[in-house]
Amino acid sequence: MIRKLIILCAALSALSAHAMKINAAGASFPYAIYSKWFSEYSKQNPDVQFNYQPIGSGGGIRQLIKETVDFGASDAPMKEKDKKKAKWPVLHVPMVLGAVAIAYNHPEVKDQLKLDGPTLADIYLGKITKWNAPQIQKLNPEMKLPESDILVVRRADGSGTTKNFADYLVDVSSEWKQRVGTGKSLRWPTGIGAKGNDGVTSMVENTTGTITYMDLAHARKNNIKTVALKNKAGVYINPTVEAVSASAKGFTPKGKELTGSLINSADKDAYPISALTYILLPMVEKDQKRVEIYKFVEWAITKGQNYAKELFYAPLPEELSKKVVKKVKSL
């Protein structure tokens, strides 16, 4: 028996040593489902192993441009200036949909606090500094809110989650649009920074009075309270998989690209800060590693979508999924 185990371990070790290793880096927003996909795919294809570093969308784009990874990942499409820096054309492949949840920690503030866009913008502009500010109390007349400070937490690294959050604030606040704008990195008027979704999650979990934005998976897995956010139709919507899917009704990709925005959808059931997340494929000369990467991507956008809901992501809309599959099959 022992001899058989030794032989089995040796065989597995040899297999691992000869497995193709694919390196990737980027967004932390989809890390939960990417980890699941990499694990499940490697179980079915033990000759392919993945090393993914969730260093943020900005970091993933930088590593892609430096050619230190086989593919990048980002929650925001690359800017034209970044595309020009890349040695090769880069294909954006939408992988899944998610919510940027507004999460907070205050024992005296009940779950599903209601906020609207202008009020959230004023908190991040540093104009609203107390939990019982009149603007927040007006939206939550049934709650007795505490007279304590709000501690704003935001990302310190280049982040696609930040880009999607800022896109929303630009859409709902002219002052935010003029003073701050949007991007993966911002000149924040207030708050303290933390790296990655893991970093902001840890800071909010351990600090009373904090508010931040993070992917829904981090909020739910860590039992952090989230805001019901008023959407364009005037309905307060909790961040859920169903509300994210509603934001993608009628979604059409931009031009020939497979990219586009789900921010502040007009659908009455839509969560207003919903987003696509992308794998960034450099269109390098096709070799065996490229073939394996394309096989994985096709698996992830078909069979892999079945893992989305249990991890608090929404599968790609059917029409978009057809276009993405067709594109990947053509590579």
From TrEMBL:
* Name of the protein in question: Phosphate-binding protein
Q: Is the keyword Transmembrane assigned to this protein? A: no
Superkingdom, according to UniProt?
Answer: Bacteria
- What CDD domains is this protein classified in? PBP2_PstS (cd13565)
Q: Which UniProt keywords apply?
A: Phosphate transport, Signal, Transport
* Annotated source species: Halobacteriovorax vibrionivorans
Kindly indicate whether the keyword Plastid belongs to this entry: no
User: Could you tell me which InterPro entries the record lists for this protein?
Assistant: ABC_phos-bd_PstS, PBP_domain, Phosphate-bind_PstS
Q: Family, per the entry? A: Belongs to the PstS family.
Q: Which SUPFAM superfamilies match?
A: Periplasmic binding protein-like II
Q: Which residues form the PBP domain?
A: 21-301
Q: How does it assemble?
A: The complex is composed of two ATP-binding proteins (PstB), two transmembrane proteins (PstC and PstA) and a solute-binding protein (PstS).
Query: Residue span of the signal peptide, if any?
Result: 1-19
Q: What does this protein do?
A: Part of the ABC transporter complex PstSACB involved in phosphate import.
